[in-house]
Amino acid sequence: AEHYDGMKRYIASLTELADNGIVSFGLGDWCPPVGGAGDHKCPTAVTSTAYYQAYTALVSKIAGILGKAADERAYATLAEDIRKAFLAKFHDSATGVVADGGQTSQACALFHGLVRADDREKVLARLLAEVDRCDGHIDCGILGAKYVMQALSDAGRVDAAFRIASQTTFPSWGHWIEQGATTLWEQWNGSSSRNHHMFSDVSAWFYKALAGINVDPAAPGFAHVVIRPVPVKGLQWARGEHRSMRGLIASSWRKENGKFTLDVTIPANTTATVFVPSSNPKTVKVDGKQARRVAGVTAVRVEEGMAVVEVGSGGYEFEGEWEE
Fold it and tell me: How crowded is the C-beta side of 136, counted as CA atoms within 13 Å?
């Protein structure tokens, strides 16, 4: 109860700062590639208002879980009012441009789900155009670096996110490695701390987008896992693992000799939905057999061009045909 009341007080303080639903206080997209730490292109009001809305929506959800129906309704209404204020202030529905039209602004609106479903394609198109304009490089500070990779991946454009992640020229994570970095830096140009966490969300992106290890929001604590790897062009293999409270969750895939192979480990007392990319999903096998004949497999279907297999705990090898 103390933590919940603290969250309510925080929202109250943001509401006091807001001007017609818009919060302009904060550091914003701190540490962009060029200029000083505060010389970001994205207006601070864009990112601060987006987090104001996200936090308010979260408290509404928590209130519902706690059985506080009046709070749930009140904060849901406030969150929707903030969303409408954001769109009225920053979004051009005709063009898809958000605020300055830069990567952070476009990705922020997508990441936080602020734009209407009918407008998402235009906002995404502008984001992709900005990535192209920067020759596949990121053009963001600490907030946009999280937004861009996740927004692109959520929209099914992991390929565009991978293009950014695999750059080795400035500004990029790869450029740090080219300079001999063994840690994450505070700024893209390396002028400040060289052991900093601010641009570290890309690490989560590797696990979620490439290795494909994802939580199921409806089953907290990894009671149910979603394994959905994306074998992008230019990458022949990926592997990742997470030591959850229930045990080791692992995903490892490779493309080789016209086959896609995915090895998955699911811990005890856990279930998983496994998406297996294949050029012919109906032929996907599990442990060398038809999926329905393997112990631990509870359901098989084809969805979005992939074989989707429901499994219980254990280790599984999935194999399907593959064409780039």
Answer: 15
What does the pLDDT look like over 265-300, one tens digit per residue?
999 999 999 999 999 998 899 999 998 889 999 999
Q: Check residue 191 and report its DSSP letter.
A: -
pLDDT digits (tens, 9 = 90+) for 300-310: 999 999 999 99
CB 210 within 8 A of CB 235: yes
Strands 271-277 and 224-227, how do they pair? parallel
What lies within 8 Å, CB to CB, of 38 at 6+ separation is 27, 28, 30
Q: How far is Cα 149 from Cα 152, in angstroms, rounded to an integer?
A: 5
Q: Kindly list the distances between the CA atom of residue 265 and the CA atoms of 155, 218, 238, 294, in Å, as whole numbers in the listed order.
A: 27, 21, 15, 15
Mean pLDDT (the chain) is 96
Q: Global pTM?
A: 0.94
pLDDT at residue 312 greater than cutoff 90: yes
Please write the tens of the pLDDT for every residue from 92-127.
Answer: 999 999 999 999 999 999 999 999 999 999 999 999
Please state, in angstroms and rounded to a whole number, the distance separating the CA atoms of residues 143 and 254: 32
Q: Give CA–CA dist 314/83, Å, rounded.
A: 43
For the chain, the farthest-separated pair of C-alpha atoms sits apart, in whole angstroms, at 62
C-alpha 212: how far from chain center: 11
> Residue for token digits 């202030």?
89
Angle at 89 between CA 85 and CA 95, to 5 degrees: 120
266-302 burial, b for 16+ CB within 10 Å, e for fewer? bbeebbbbbbbbbeebeebbbbeeebeebebbeebee
Cβ atoms < 10 Å from Cβ of 239: 13
- Asked if residue 324 has pLDDT above 90, the reply is no
How far is residue 148 CA from its own chain's centroid? Answer: 8
1 pLDDT more than 80: no
- Please report the sign of the dihedral spanned by the C-alpha atoms of residue 174, residue 179, residue 185, residue 186: negative
236 contacts: CB under 8 Å, gap ≥ 6: 254, 255, 256
> Between 69-90 and 103-111, two packed helices, what is the crossing angle to 10 degrees?
150
